[in-house]
Amino acid sequence: MSDLRSNPAVEYALLAALATLWGASYTFIKLGIATIPPVTLIAARTLIASLLLLAILQLRGIHLPHDRETWKRFLFQACLNSVVPFTLIAWAEYSVDAGLAAILNSTTPIFAFLLTVAITRHEPTTVRKLFGVIAGMAGICLIVGLQALNGLGRELISQLAIIAATISYAGAAIFGRNFKGLDPLVPAAGSLLCGTALLIPASLIIDRPWTLEPSTSSILALFGLSVFSTALAFAIYFRLIHTLGSVGTTAQAYLRVPIGVGIGVLFLGESLGPTAWIGFVCVFIGVLAMTLPTKPKQANAPAK
Questions:
Q1: Does the pTM of the predicted model rise above 0.85?
Q2: Coil/strand/helix, residue 208
Q3: DSSP state of 107
Q4: pLDDT tens-digit series, residues 94-131
Q5: 253-291: per-residue pLDDT in tens?
Q6: Cα separation of 190 and 238, whole Å?
Q7: Burial level of 282, CB count in 10 A (0-12/13-18/19+)?
Q8: DSSP-derived secondary structure for 146-208
Q9: Torsion of CA 41, 44, 48, 50, to 10 degrees
């Protein structure tokens, strides 16, 4: 298998793309749940995305594995990376703004770092990575303004649901390293298929989707969520797990908010204060600190 990390610039571009795709998901979800209940929205999201990835795998001549152990790992990954967090966030956005959801969810790298330090210890937990976690969170606060956090405390259960989803994402980033050696599309498709198998029956029982009358905007949001923020995003995600590592990949959570602000500046004519620009720098430094590869120690020169 070729070295995926032969061009770091490509990996950082993919990290930014992943942040953009998942940053847009909060708006897609907010539009979708307006007329589609959360469980049905997420069930349809995983179904459409998994079918799209299966079609791509078919075109590339790649087959899903047949052994039971791999599918058990797919099922566990599905619970961590889609079934639990997708549903919790969709439900929470009934009462939590999409922007606040993105802010709360940007703490994924912190939990990934803490889980790595406390449990798995599969990556070096350097002072540089700790600095990156702190710098990234400082940047988020500067970009959105401290007043954006005033909503914390209201709708506490919904906010705790998003934090629970964030912890689940952190666990998924760590567990995702178990799929090393597989084409990134394989665990993406396999885990989404498992998620679909769990969510479709739940949707049929809870929401009775045949009785729903979704609006055009909700349907379009569902397709945007499925194609871009799920199928494409998952393919990038599983690649980055093996090139940037678990903590490094979760660093894209910091980029979601500044990318959203940047879109507002470019297309909506919004303006940024000086503290926001400082925040961009903090986020950039934080991402670099968590994703730059650690130089291997050089062996001592043989004695002459």
A1: no
A2: coil
A3: T
A4: 887 777 777 777 777 777 777 877 776 656 667 777 78
A5: 777 777 766 655 665 465 656 766 777 777 777 767 766
A6: 12
A7: buried
A8: GGGGGGTTTTHHHHHHHHHHHHHHHHHHHHGGGGTTS-THHHHHHHHHHHHHHHHHHHHHHT-
A9: 100
